[in-house]
């Protein structure tokens, strides 16, 4: 579908982007009758951002009967990302096996003192963590959205004009033609999937949040060294590689991704990167850096994720978990849930929707399924990533087979793992013992009290 056909919606009088963004006019839900039917056309939606969140939203919208336009600034670009996805995502999102670079069955966790634990002893023969390159996954998901009927527009959305009346259109201003041509597009609904620095979020006044920075180098190793990473990934903990997160060495098709991240000391990110390269040096020396990448990562959900007929998903909404740093699955899931919610609310694109519809069909569903997971992982990060002593305790706990089984079941299948009460008690006692040995229990008493009351089973929400 050509972009020119999108201008059949009447465009309101032009306002400057500065005027639109400064006031953040809000179109709220009304207690009056439901929004009217749309005569002679389908509901029109713009999805800004063509990563897993945006592509999944666009696919759901287009397949459900909504006229859909998917914006992606740089279709060939690759986001710096570890690229790990859970097993359940392969089936749930029908990811073909040929996209998988590596099937990781050994996750080695290295403590600040270089104590090593093999985290993966409880995996069943068919279980693994899939490693992919983001440029490969993102391209596949965008193509599938196009096949479902979404129109892909290669362009940079610079601002969104928010309407002052309830059913007037949103107007997207964007640069097309290699960012040399200014264009406008009027739509009924906007889905912001444009990352941590979301322009859509800024346009609707969704509020700020703290963000981390992820820095990663792709390193091509000699064949004999690449063999070590055939089915193995590594996580390194310590103040030297990150004061509040972990560093990683994740295998890809013909190289490894070596990176780290931090929210507290962003200016020192290159020093942390040097440190992870030094600690992993015996296994990656002799390799050649083929790409250097950096990207902001959200630290928590935005204050507002729905406003008017605009919804935020993925990184734009802040859906990256603490402690594990997982974002791909939650991005794709939030995009699909949002798209399907809009389809339901609009009755297959036949009527207008409002903020109340988005809150009910998308936000309420999302929070009901995942808000507990995000809160608990936030607490776990505060308990175990605050000092090297706490990190030593975490690695010690990861050596326990029951901890491994519960964690992997929850991660791989995104469900509550069925625990054993006696084993849960033993795990709690072991956790207390590790924290006491590391002399950190007192500093985190309130957080640990919460965790003890909920057990580690909440990982699987």
Automatic annotation (TrEMBL):
Top-rank lineage group of the source organism: Eukaryota
Limits of the FAD-binding domain: 44-330
Residue span of region Disordered: 1-38
SUPFAM superfamilies per record: FAD/NAD(P)-binding domain
Pfam families associated with the record: FAD_binding_3
UniProt GO BP: chlorophyll biosynthetic process; photosynthesis
Pathway field: Porphyrin-containing compound metabolism; chlorophyll biosynthesis; Cofactor biosynthesis; tocopherol biosynthesis
InterPro entries (UniProt xref): BchP_ChlP_pln/prok, FAD-bd, FAD/NAD-bd_sf, Geranylgeranyl_Rdtase_fam, Geranylgeranyl_Rdtase_pln/cyn, Geranylgeranyl_reductase
Annotated catalysed reactions: phytyl diphosphate + 3 NADP(+) = geranylgeranyl diphosphate + 3 NADPH + 3 H(+)
Enzyme class, first EC level, given as a word: oxidoreductase
Record keyword NADP present: yes
Keywords assigned: Chlorophyll biosynthesis, NADP, Oxidoreductase, Photosynthesis
Keyword hit for Calcium: no
MF terms in GO: FAD binding; geranylgeranyl diphosphate reductase activity; geranylgeranyl reductase activity
GO CC terms, sorted: chloroplast thylakoid membrane
Purpose of the protein: Catalyzes the reduction of geranylgeranyl diphosphate to phytyl diphosphate, providing phytol for both tocopherol and chlorophyll synthesis.
Alphabetized PANTHER family for the sequence: GERANYLGERANYL DIPHOSPHATE REDUCTASE
Protein name: Geranylgeranyl diphosphate reductase, chloroplastic
Organism: Trema orientale (Charcoal tree)
Lineage of producing organism: Eukaryota, Viridiplantae, Streptophyta, Embryophyta, Tracheophyta
């Amino acid at each position: 579908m050509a972009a020119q056909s999108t201008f059949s919606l009447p465009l309101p009088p032009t306002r400057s982007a500065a005027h639109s963004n400064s006031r953040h006019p809000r179109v709220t839900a009304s207690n009056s009758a439901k929004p009217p039917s749309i005569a002679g056309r389908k509901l029109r939606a713009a999805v800004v951002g063509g990563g897993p969140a945006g592509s999944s939203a666009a696919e759901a919208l287009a397949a459900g009967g909504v006229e859909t336009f998917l914006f992606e600034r740089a279709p060939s670009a690759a986001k710096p990302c570890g690229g790990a996805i859970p097993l359940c995502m392969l089936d749930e999102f029908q990811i073909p096996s040929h996209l998988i670079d590596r099937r990781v069955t050994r996750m080695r966790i290295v403590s600040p003192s270089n104590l090593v634990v093999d985290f993966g002893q409880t995996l069943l023969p068919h279980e693994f963590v899939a490693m992919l390159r983001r440029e490969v996954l993102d391209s596949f998901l965008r193509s599938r959205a196009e096949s479902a009927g979404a129109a892909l527009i290669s362009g940079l959305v610079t601002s969104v004009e928010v309407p002052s009346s309830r059913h007037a259109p949103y107007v997207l201003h964007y640069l097309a033609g290699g960012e040399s041509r200014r264009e406008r597009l009027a739509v009924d609904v906007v889905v912001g999937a444009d990352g941590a620095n979301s322009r859509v979020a800024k346009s609707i006044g969704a509020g700020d949040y703290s963000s981390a920075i992820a820095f990663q180098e792709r390193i091509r190793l000699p064949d004999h060294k690449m063999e070590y990473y055939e089915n193995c990934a590594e996580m390194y903990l310590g103040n030297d590689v990150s004061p509040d997160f972990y560093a990683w060495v994740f295998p890809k098709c013909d190289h490894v991704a070596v990176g780290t991240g931090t929210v507290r000391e962003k200016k020192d990110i290159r020093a942390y990167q040097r440190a992870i390269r030094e600690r992993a040096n015996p296994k990656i020396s002799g390799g050649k850096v083929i790409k250097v990448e950096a990207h902001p990562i959200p630290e928590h959900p935005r204050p507002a994720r729905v406003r008017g007929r605009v919804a935020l998903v993925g990184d734009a909404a802040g859906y990256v978990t603490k402690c594990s740093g997982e974002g791909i699955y939650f991005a794709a899931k939030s995009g699909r849930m949002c798209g399907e919610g809009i389809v339901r609310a609009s009755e297959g694109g036949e009527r207008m929707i409002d903020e109340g519809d988005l809150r009910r069909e998308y936000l309420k569903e999302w929070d009901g399924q995942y808000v507990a997971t995000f809160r608990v992982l936030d607490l776990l990060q505060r308990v175990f990533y605050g000092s090297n002593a706490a990190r030593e305790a975490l690695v010690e706990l990861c050596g326990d087979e029951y901890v491994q089984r519960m964690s992997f079941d929850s991660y791989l299948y995104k469900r509550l793992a069925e625990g054993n009460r006696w084993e849960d008690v033993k795990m709690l006692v072991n956790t207390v013992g590790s924290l006491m040995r590391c002399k950190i229990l007192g500093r985190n008493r309130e957080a640990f009290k919460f965790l003890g009351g909920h057990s580690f089973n909440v990982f699987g929400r």
